[in-house]
Amino acid sequence: MSITIKQGLSGKYFSRNIPDLIVALTGYRLGVKISVDGKEIFSEYLFPMDTVVTMSDLGDLLTPYVKGALVSAVAVTLTEEDTDGKQLSTESMTFEAVYCEADIPTSCDDFCQKHFLTLLMGVKTTSMGRLEYLHYTGTDDATVMAMYTDGTTKEFTATKIGGTSKYTTIDVSPGGYKQDGKTLISYTVTAGDRRQEYELDLENPDCAPVLLFVNSFGCEELMYCTGTLTKSPSFKRETTYIEGRNKNYSITETRSFKADTGVLSEEMADWFGEVLRSSYIRIVTFRDDKPQIGREVIITESKSDQTNDPDELPRFTFTYQPAGKNHNIVDLQREGRIFDDTFDYTFN
Q1: pTM above 0.90, yes or no
Q2: How many Cβ atoms sit within 10 Å of the Cβ of residue 242?
Q3: Which of 83, 150, 284, 315 has the CA that lies 20 to 30 A from 163?
Q4: Residue 220 and residue 213: Cα distance in Å, rounded?
């Protein structure tokens, strides 16, 4: 008696796109153990139907465990047993899972070799003073080719700021490629076959809000909104008569903000969906040109319609509010500004 692997698992997969594991056996039952990065997360006996055991929806099982590490080693051990629990044969297999919530129509290996861990499939617009991150699988070095208004170029080595032995995070903020007497207009980041282009908006518009969000690969990206930001607090009041006088005995404040992305390119408009589906978003502010990661917020409403009209300029609106229960938030560094620090300094 022996196990026959009709469809096994090997190589590298996105966590949501792991194929079915199909096993044929002649024994009574199949013991299945699955571990992620050496920690066992599944141990069950499965019984064959017409001598075949099929394990489906492995992505639903594995994705929550892979999310923390972003790239994880997965081991599967299969043990065939008879009715008395005697082991008849054993098979094992290993593969790598890359955290991803998107359905990507190519192999994980192909995507990871040719793309950074982002769904932005085009040029990103940025400005001097902004913070920009990129992430990719592997640990190879990344280079940046910067171009200036006078036609000259200069190559830099991208600064690694995080990662593990399986993935790398680099800081590709435009401020790192300034040169005295020159104006930066664009730069291209390259790591192996991966390329990401950035173009600078030389008008350097004010941005509010600036959102640091977790994308579909579990990595942090930044969204800079250049449209109008509106603060709209509301209050729910509960009243009753106490000693003959009408009193507000409960006042609940909801502090909401309506943001406008400003005009986006078609590529960035598609990518903006990552913000709307993100489960973890924080506000970023800049003080003395240094970014400060602020409070977590949640998006409560959004309008992100797009058409194929050739003259359309994509721009979207959304409403967000602090994730905490208490919205009576005090900013000790406000320095007398009218609005809180989710607004830019033009509102002073």
Answers
A1: no
A2: 9
A3: 284
A4: 5
pLDDT digits (tens, 9 = 90+) for 132-158: 999 999 999 999 999 999 999 999 999
Per the CB < 8 A criterion, the answer to whether 224 and 207 are in contact is: yes
C-alpha span between 139 and 200 (Å, rounded): 28
Q: Report the pLDDT value the prediction gives residue 117, as an integer from 0 to 100.
A: 96
Burial class (CB in 10 A: 0-12, 13-18, 19+), 261: buried
Bond into 209 cis (ω within 30): yes
Q: What is the per-residue DSSP string for 74-141? A: EEEEEEEE-TT--EEEEEEEEEEEE---S--SS-HHHHHHHS-SSS--SPEEE-TT---EEEEES---
Q: Which residues contact 253 (CB under 8 A, 6 or more apart)?
A: 233, 234, 235, 327, 328
**Of 98, 122, 123, the residue nearest 111 (C-alpha):** 98
Strand residue runs (E) in 261-313: 281-287, 290-303
User: How far is it, in rounded angstroms, from Cα 223 to Cα 131?
Assistant: 10
Which ranges in the chain belong to alpha helices (H)? 58-66, 108-114, 266-271, 273-277
Amino acid at 58: L
